Amino acid sequence: MLVLLDVDDDGIGTITLNRPEKLNALSNELSKELAETVLRVAGNTRVRAVVITGAGRAFCAGGDIDSMRRHAEEHHWTSIRDILQAGATIVETLHAMPKPTVAAVNGPAAGAGGSLALACDFRIASEAASFGLVFSRLGLHPDWGGTYFLPRIVGTAKALELILSGDIIDAAECVRLGIFNRVTDADHLLSTAREFAVTFAAKAPLALTLARQAVHNSVNMPLKEVLALEIENQLRIFPTADAKEGIRAFLEKRRPSFSGV
């Protein structure tokens, strides 16, 4: 299988791109499997948070160049469209699903692989990780959401510099720019990413989902609308059992036990 899925007892769904001999390059087959897996995880009520990583020494090297060359030479434009549409489905689903997502970037995240990492809420990286939207090196346009997510993280000017240059930057620079949330050694990467995911999975689901959506939507909303949304969400949350449990636990100085209602 080109994409592996494991759901543990804490409700953490770990998705692994499993094409290590090709640095997890995105063939049509892998992209299709990944889209199907992400859709399945989004609809699985057992899964409360998602971790995405790559097998071997890379997170994802981007598009499969050999396949891209063959498709271009043979004018297989439908195959090109299929992989682009799969990417759109993947990043839209990750962005919209009511569950926190963490990319565990274990090595190079290049091209569409970099875009995939950006589509996650958080990026935990190993010291060997690197990042680059390298499309311009190939005379291509960014895809899989890179032009949407990168400016929102680093700002327009820096995003333009990285996209137009195609530069590859190391883990330390990614942390400085806010692309990576945290860097750890390779041996502790998955456990650190999982700790991140477990922290969020333990929160009250509705409050977490609405807050996540509010932050994403606020970028394109005026302050007046954001304040109105906060009031609406807070009034929706207060009557829930989880809100009552959270307040009670705080006053009793204990860890809350949220039930999702």
Summarize this structure briefly.
The chain is an alpha/beta fold and 261 residues long.
Topology:
Blueprint: E1 3-7, E2 12-17, H1 28-42, E3 49-54, H2 65-73, H3 77-96, E4 101-105, E5 108-110, H4 112-118, E6 122-126, E7 130-132, H5 146-154, H6 156-165, E8 169-170, H7 171-177, E9 182-184, H8 189-201, H9 205-218, H10 223-237, H11 241-251
Parallel strand pairs: 2-3, 3-4, 4-6, 5-7, 6-9
Antiparallel strand pairs: 1-2, 7-8
Explain what you see:
The structure is a single chain. This protein is α/β, with parallel strands linked by helices. The protein has a six-stranded mixed beta sheet with strand order 1-2-3-4-6-9, with helices on both faces. The protein has helices at 28-42, 65-73, 77-96, 112-118, 146-154, 156-165, 171-177, 189-201, 205-218, 223-237, 241-251; strands spanning 3-7, 12-17, 49-54, 101-105, 108-110, 122-126, 130-132, 169-170, 182-184. Helix 1 runs parallel beside helix 3 (77-96), helix 4 (112-118) packs across helix 5 (146-154) and helix 9 (205-218) packs antiparallel against helix 10. It has two domains: 3-201, 2-enoyl-CoA Hydratase, Chain A, domain 1; 205-251, Orthogonal Bundle (Lyase 2-enoyl-coa Hydratase, Chain  A, domain 2). The chain contains eleven helices and nine strands. The radius of gyration is 19 Å and the shape is globular.
